[in-house]
Amino acid sequence: MPDADLSQMSPVWPRIVAEALTAERGEGAWLHTSDGRAFLDFTSGIGVTNTGHSHPAVVKAVQDQAARLIHGQANIVYHDQVIDLTHRLGELVPSGLDCFFFANSGAEAVEGAVKLAKQGTRRQNIIVFDGSFHGRTHLTMSMTTSKTIYRSLYQPLVPGIFVAPYPYGYRNGWDDDTATDFSIAGLRRLLRTQTAPEETAAVVIEPVLGEGGYVVPPRRFLQEVRAVCDEHDILMVLDEIQSGFGRTGRWFAFEHFDIVPDVIVMAKGMGSGMPISAVAATQELWEAQKPGSHGGTYGANAVACAAANATIDVIRDEGLLENATTWGDYLKGRLCEIRGDHPEIGDVRGLGMMIATEFTTPDGEPWEGRTRAVARAAFDEGLLLLRCGSDGNVIRWIPPLIAGKDEMDRALEAFGRALAA
Question: What is the mean pLDDT of residues 32-56?
Answer without folding.
Answer: 97
